[in-house]
Each structure stands twice: as C-alpha cells, then as structure tokens.
Design a protein that fits this description.
Blueprint: H1 5-24, E1 30-35, E2 40-45, E3 50-55, H2 65-95
Antiparallel strand pairs: 1-2, 2-3
Helix pairs in contact: 1-2
Length: 112
Amino acid sequence: MNFNMMDMFGKMKEVQSRMKEAQEGLGVVTETGESGAGLVKVTVNGLKNVLKIEIDADLIKPDDKEMLQDLIVAATNKAMANVETKAREHLRQATEGLLPNIPGLNLDGLMG
C-alpha cells in the first residue's frame, strides 16, 4: 500500500470543508418528540435548538402544571435523542467516500 502523506492532508482538508458545510446544514435537519400519547410535541433541529412546542388544549389547566412540565421535558428529550441520530447520519453522508476505511480512525469528534 502506497501511503502519500500529502494526499492524506489534502483529504483531511476536504473532510474538514465538507464537515463544516454539513454542520451548517444541520439547521434544516428536524425531529419531533412526543409524550402523553401525542398531547405534547416538541420539534428541534440538528443544532439542538427547540423550534416549536405544541400542547393539546386539554392539558392547559392550572392544577395539571407539574404534569405538563414533565410531558414537555419528556417530549424535548425524545426529540433531542432522535435528532442526534439524524444529525450523525447527515454528517456521515456529507463525508462519505472522502477517506479510506482506516481501522481505529474515529471522526466522531468532528461531528460535534
């Protein structure tokens, strides 16, 4: 196997460039998490920003405040977990084929 260090550095520059573009594109990657059988829905993007919270009108009662807060937290956590997977796939696809499959090479640090 002929290993050329300059080619490898060039590939790394290309990976970094593609990764930066992909990370900037994470704002359009969205995921929604639900709790309470869909009574609370939270939508987040790949930058881990909460975009929207939807609450069924039946839940908006002063005496149910703690339950509502718990449902919002649960829906938000589900959305964040789901978008993490989607964001990793988005970044993986953006850099696919740029580097050879090198055992032990882990680019997760580049993925935020």
